[in-house]
């Protein structure tokens, strides 16, 4: 099964930039999607297809994908951005989605 | 608009089964697969399986093979997830999710149910 690796935690001060990596073997060959998840709420899609934003997601959220690492970047971090973030791709061998382990963003 | 409405919280004893429903609104129920994902306390998102509402075909995660059964009732646009032989570590929030298709034709999730808390405790 395809494996996605995320750091358990990332922190940033308000107004700074947070970068959350998602590692996978030749991940650049896959489309990467990102979700924001806060306790008690359903996950929210913040980036799809590596770098596209659904309507309603602030421009502060952006994504990139190169080599073996995809990255979610959150500019001008706000307190309300504090959440768990998950990357996701499709495992074509086993025909199912795969999630990374999740990264907790702490706003200092 | 698209909405997925799940059934309410459940408390079950170890060894029992639980069946969670997910009623779809705002789109053609048989047009996309329905996926189930769970999050246990302190853990990440874990994919459990998908069902093709049109054909009834399924694909289950290896971790749940033999314990999970996904079904649907197309007449009421509702998908079901049944998990058997419950253990304490099955305590989790269970979500249904409707996929969209990325630029390569593979699935991601913009629409999620509100989640159903299943507590397994003696």
How is this structure best described in words?
The complex is a heterodimer of chains A (108) and B (122). Chain A has 108 residues and is mainly beta. Helix content of chain A is 0%, strand content 45%. Chain A has strands spanning 9-12, 18-23, 33-37, 44-47, 61-66, 69-74, 83-91, 96-99, 103-107. In chain A, the strands form 2 sheets. In chain A, strands 1, 3, 4, 7, 8 and 9 form a 6-stranded mixed beta sheet that branches. In chain A, strands 2-6-5 form a 3-stranded antiparallel beta sheet, with no helix packed on it. In chain B, strands 2, 4, 5, 6, 9, 10 and 11 form a 7-stranded mixed beta sheet that branches. Helices cover 0% and strands 52% of the residues of chain B. In chain B, strand 7 and strand 8 form a beta hairpin. Chain B is built from no helices and 11 strands. Chain A binds chain B through residues 1, 30-31, 33, 35, 37, 40-43, 45, 48-49, 54, 84, 86, 88-90, 92, 95-102, and chain B through 35, 37, 39, 44-47, 49-50, 59, 61-62, 95, 100, 102-104, 106-110, 112-115.
């Amino acid at each position: 099964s395809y494996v996605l690796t995320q750091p358990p935690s990332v922190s940033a001060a308000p107004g700074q930039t947070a970068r959350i990596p998602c590692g996978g073997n030749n991940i650049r060959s896959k489309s990467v999607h990102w979700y924001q998840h806060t306790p008690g709420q359903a996950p929210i899609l913040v980036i799809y297809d590596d770098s596209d934003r659904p309507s309603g997601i602030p421009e502060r959220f952006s994504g990139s994908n190169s080599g073996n690492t995809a990255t979610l970047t959150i500019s001008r971090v706000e307190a309300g951005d504090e959440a768990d973030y998950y990357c996701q791709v499709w495992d074509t061998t086993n025909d199912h989605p795969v999630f990374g382990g999740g990264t907790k963003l702490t706003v200092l | 608009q698209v909405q997925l409405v799940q059934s309410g919280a459940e408390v079950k004893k170890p060894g029992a089964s639980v069946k969670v429903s997910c009623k779809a609104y705002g789109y053609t129920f048989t047009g996309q697969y329905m996926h189930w994902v769970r999050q246990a306390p302190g853990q990440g998102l874990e994919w459990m399986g998908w069902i093709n509402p049109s054909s009834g075909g399924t694909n289950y995660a290896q971790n749940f093979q033999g314990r999970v059964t996904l079904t649907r009732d197309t007449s009421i646009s509702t998908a079901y997830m049944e998990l058997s032989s419950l253990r304490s570590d099955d305590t989790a929030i269970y979500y249904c999710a409707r996929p969209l298709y990325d630029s390569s034709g593979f699935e991601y999730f913009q629409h999620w149910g509100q989640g159903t808390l299943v507590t397994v405790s003696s």
